[in-house]
């Protein structure tokens, strides 16, 4: 479509949208070719379990999304098919994996260091005897 003349079968207003769609479909095609060039077992052996879960979830979500689009192009309401529930189920698992990932990379709190920083920033509280001596010194002036 890129570089071709505008077809009279669709309005000029959607020409850029169709070009973007063609570009996106090309990117998906390239990505799928890359994924298919490596065997699944080889790919999963190089990943840790969390990364394996991510690959599996993205693959399942992509396939179900593509099926959703296929149904829509066939003038079938995809909301009436179980694909909607499957996409939601996968989304829930993706959120769980994201939570686990976020917990892994979250900064660990060193309570001792934090306590020392706060004490240094605020200063040490004065003892009652020190306060009494300071008050006596003020009253004598």
Protein model, in words:
Its main location: cytoplasm. Plays a role in the recruitment of the exosome to pre-rRNA to mediate the 3'-5' end processing of the 5.8S rRNA. It is found in: Cytoplasm; Nucleus, Nucleolus. It comes from Nannospalax galili. With 141 residues, this protein is an all-alpha fold. The protein folds into two domains: 1-37; 47-136. The protein is built from six helices and no strands. It has helices at 15-37, 40-45, 49-73, 83-105, 111-122, 128-139. The longest helix is centred in the middle third of the chain and has 25 residues, at 49-73. It is elongated and about 95 Å long. The N and C termini lie far apart (93 Å). The mean pLDDT is 81.
Mean pLDDT: 81
Number of strands: 0
Round the Cα radius of gyration to an integer and report it: 31 Å
State the shape.
elongated
Terminal Cα span: 93 Å
- Work out the strand percent: under 5%
Number of folding domains? 2
């Amino acid at each position: 479509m890129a570089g071709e003349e505008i077809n009279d079968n669709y309005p000029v207003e959607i020409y850029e949208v169709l070009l973007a769609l063609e570009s996106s479909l090309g990117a998906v095609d390239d990505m799928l070719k890359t994924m298919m060039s490596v065997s699944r077992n080889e790919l999963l052996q190089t990943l840790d379990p969390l990364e394996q879960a991510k690959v599996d979830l993205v693959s399942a979500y992509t396939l179900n999304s593509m099926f959703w689009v296929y149904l829509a192009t066939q003038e079938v309401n995809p909301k009436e098919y179980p694909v909607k529930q499957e996409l939601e189920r996968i989304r829930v698992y993706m959120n769980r994996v994201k939570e686990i990932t976020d917990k892994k990379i979250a900064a660990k709190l060193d309570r001792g260091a934090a306590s020392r920083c706060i004490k240094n920033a605020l200063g040490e509280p004065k003892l009652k005897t020190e306060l009494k001596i300071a008050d006596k010194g003020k009253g004598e002036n």
